[in-house]
Amino acid sequence: MKNVNKNQLFVAACISLVVTSMTFAIRAGILTQLGEEFGISNQQLGWINSMAFLGFPLAMILGGLLYNKIGARKLMVAAFVCHLLGLVLTIVAGGFWTLIISTFFIGFANGSVEAACNPMIADMYTKNRTAMLNKFHVWFPGGIVIGSLISKFMTDFGMGWQLQIGVMLIPTLIYGYMFFKQEFPESEHIETDTAKNIKSLADPLFIFILLCMTLTAISEFGPQQWVERILGNSGASPMLVLAMVTGIMAIGRYFAGPIVHRINPIGVLLLSAIVTTAAVYSMSIAEGSMIYLAAVLFALGVCYFWPTMIGFTSEYLPKTGALGMSLVGGAGMFATSIWQPVIGGWLDSAKESAVASGLTDQVAELTAGKATLGKMMFFPLAVAVLFAILFLFRKKLEERRVPQGHVSEEIV
Questions:
Q1: Keywords in UniProt for this one (predicted)?
Q2: Residues 271, 265: Cα–Cα separation, whole Å
Q3: Which among 8, 177, 210, 282 is least surrounded, fewest beta carbons within 10 Å?
Q4: pLDDT digits (tens, 9 = 90+) for 224-281
Q5: What's the predicted TM-score (pTM) here?
């Protein structure tokens, strides 16, 4: 890696992840506008949301299978082209089906970013994998903070959803320029034999982690993607809640290194699941300003889920290589895509029941949101049980872990 500028590649990867996360935040902020303009129900909005979460795992599966052959550069070309296509097609969308197609392209771009960058970073920083993956994933919540504040500002000033989508073209062009002028590293520290990667997928631990990832992902993205619809009538500002949550997540991930080294990834995941369960339950019963306190707890809970799951796969299942990391991430997003229309259906059904009981429209919306959050609590509760089982075997699992140092990586 003598001719590779790791710092520049890392910064470019972070900007591409900012675009990825802005698509989540701004879409969450414009759901109401889309519903009103095109006459789309909550369940239909759920289907539109699901396309982002469906395109993501498909790109990660393909990217994981092809990474050893085509490398990170070509995957980032695919990400750049699909981001441009998805954003432009969204701006000119005319209804439900055009939004479905454009959102799928955006999801495919987002998955391509993860498929390229996760193994590239694990390879470049092999002695500090989980810590550096957490530092990279700082910019997922970081981008959501940026996107949610932009969405709130533009919405408050009467700017349409098309302009909000258009803003994302700026960082897309920046990361495209930065990436394509850099030399990419050859894979040196991850397993690059795809046949061995595929064979290693039969490891019971990998299957277990795959199942856990489906639950950690929906625990994180379920409340986040529906924050505007669920909390819109709660007395708290939904987009400020989202910005606060993701801001705390970004800070937590940036300083993840010492925590991961001290507790180890398994302990981090178990504590995260317990805190998230308590947080989602608190959000389902909180009123007014107390929602902000519950949101802080939620941020602390979900903060380490995604990057630590990817890091766990890289460290404890190294023979799965780039394919293993991509499949774990893909499983999380695929599960989230399946649950999006279900969550939308929960909201519609709960609102109908609330209206039938005589509640006014705004109160009915709030009641439906709280009921839906109450159901979402069972996702982190289930994964807490699974991580508790994993925690019992932690000493045995350390024997198969890739040795990790306590080096401090300097990133500009």
A1: Membrane, Transmembrane, Transmembrane helix, Transport
A2: 10
A3: 177
A4: 767 666 666 666 677 677 778 888 888 998 888 788 878 889 999 999 999 999 999 9
A5: 0.80
